[in-house]
Each structure stands twice: as C-alpha cells, then as structure tokens.
Design brief:
The chain has one domain. The protein is 65% helix and 4% strand. It contains 6 helices and 2 strands, in the order αββααααα. It has helices at residues 2-16, 36-45, 48-54, 61-70, 73-80, 85-100; strands spanning 25-26, 32-33. A two-stranded antiparallel ribbon has the order 1-2. β1 and β2 (32-33) form a beta hairpin. The chain is globular. The two termini are 14 Å apart.
C-alpha cells in the first residue's frame, strides 16, 4: 500500500515536471510551455483564435503534446473531448489539482 502511494506520488511529480528542453511546446502566441501548469496558464489567457490554431478538425497539438511528451493519457483523452479553450483550461486545471494532491 505504501509503495503504491509512493509510486503514485512519483508519477504525479513526473507529470507535473518540466519536459526536456527539446520537447517544449511553442504556442502560436509565441509563448513557450515547459509543463502542465504553463499549459493551463496559456489556455486561460490565449484567444479562442489561438486555441483554434492548435486544436481544430485537422489536428490537436495540445492532445499530442500531453500524450506524447508529458505522457498523461488521461489528460490527453480529456483534452481531445474539450469543445473549446475555456473547457480545455478547466480540464487541465482539474488534472493539476488532482495530481498535486498525490
């Protein structure tokens, strides 16, 4: 039990940590994102047009980055279903909150 809790805490720390420099996310706004918290801030402040540049019918850069680089399949899956920027920001904020409690 204790071992499992420690593993969950380590995994949460890993998910919340900065990604390696070669895998940072370059936002259409010019901002550089290093971690999930910065993604949340970017989603909260970017325009809906900026969001649509990254998440549209052809692609979803946020989903790809979270899935492939941060490696948080739960958050990636939830982001894929986000209907808009505001909802995506709430999803990321909720995930950060959950991970921070571990």
């Amino acid at each position: 039990m204790v071992s499992t809790l420690k593993q969950e805490a380590r995994e949460a720390q890993r998910l919340l940590a900065n990604v390696p420099d070669e895998y940072i996310f370059w936002s259409h706004t010019g901002h550089i994102l290093h971690n999930m918290r910065e993604l949340k801030e970017e989603l909260e402040t970017m325009s809906d047009e900026g969001y649509a540049y990254h998440a549209n019918m052809e692609k979803n850069d946020f989903f790809n980055w979270v899935r492939d680089i941060i490696k948080d399949n739960k958050l990636a899956s939830d982001l894929l279903r986000a209907p808009n920027r505001a909802q995506a920001a709430k999803i990321v904020a909720s995930r950060i909150s959950t991970l921070s409690r571990k």
